[in-house]
Design goal:
Helix content: 10-25%
CATH topology: Lipocalin
Largest sheet: 10 strands, antiparallel, barrel
Radius of gyration: 19 Å
Number of domains: 1
CATH architecture: Beta Barrel
Strand order of the largest sheet: 1-2-3-4-5-6-7-8-9-14
Distance between the termini: 33 Å
Number of helices: 2
Shape: globular
CATH class: Mainly Beta
């Protein structure tokens, strides 16, 4: 019983600590394997790193993603910018005129955006000693629209469903 309570307390403190001290509590060089899956199953597996490190003379942190063995070609040197920590509002600055808002909600860090006809949602969170990074993408074109009619005197709003085509998941550990 004591070990169960200790485990619950550890994970509760970890979640609260991660939320209140983001991004400092997530600081480090994280490394692991990224799995890319479709409806057909796993289509690719590659090495992935995420470096979250303080930037000198700034409140910002690096958010450098490195994909694969070719570190030069696979490096994405982004910057994590704090916009309003009290509201959980951040941005990922890609250093190429793209700066996307990101949100810290309940200990998870989210981005939701559209690029070239694809909707993409990323989420990153601490899970024990691991940092989990997940990306889900699919077309911005809905596969169906249902509702949009009156039923028993109640106006039902139209609901569009979007396809999910690819999921990418990496479980990373601090180096």
């Amino acid at each position: 019983m004591k070990s169960i309570l200790a485990t619950i307390l550890f994970f509760s403190v970890n979640l609260i600590f991660g939320q209140n001290n983001f991004p400092a509590a997530w600081q480090g060089e994280w490394t692991g394997t990224l799995e890319i899956v479709t409806a057909a199953g796993k289509v690719q597996e590659l090495q992935m790193e995420l470096h979250i490190l303080p930037i000198d003379s700034s409140e910002n942190f690096t958010w450098t993603i490195i994909y694969g063995e070719d570190r030069e070609a696979g490096t994405r040197p982004y910057e994590l910018v704090t916009l309003d920590a009290a509201k959980g509002l951040y941005a990922i600055d890609e250093k190429n005129s793209i700066q996307m808002e990101a949100y810290l909600l309940g200990g998870k860090f989210y981005q939701w955006f559209e690029v070239s006809g694809s909707l993409i949602v990323t989420s990153t969170w601490l899970e024990g000693e691991e940092l989990v990074w997940e990306l889900v993408s699919g077309s911005i074109e809905p596969v169906s629209t249902t509702g949009g009619q009156e039923m028993e005197g109640v106006e039902i709003p139209p609901v569009k469903t979007f396809p999910v085509r690819v999921a990418q998941v990496a479980r990373l550990v601090r180096r």
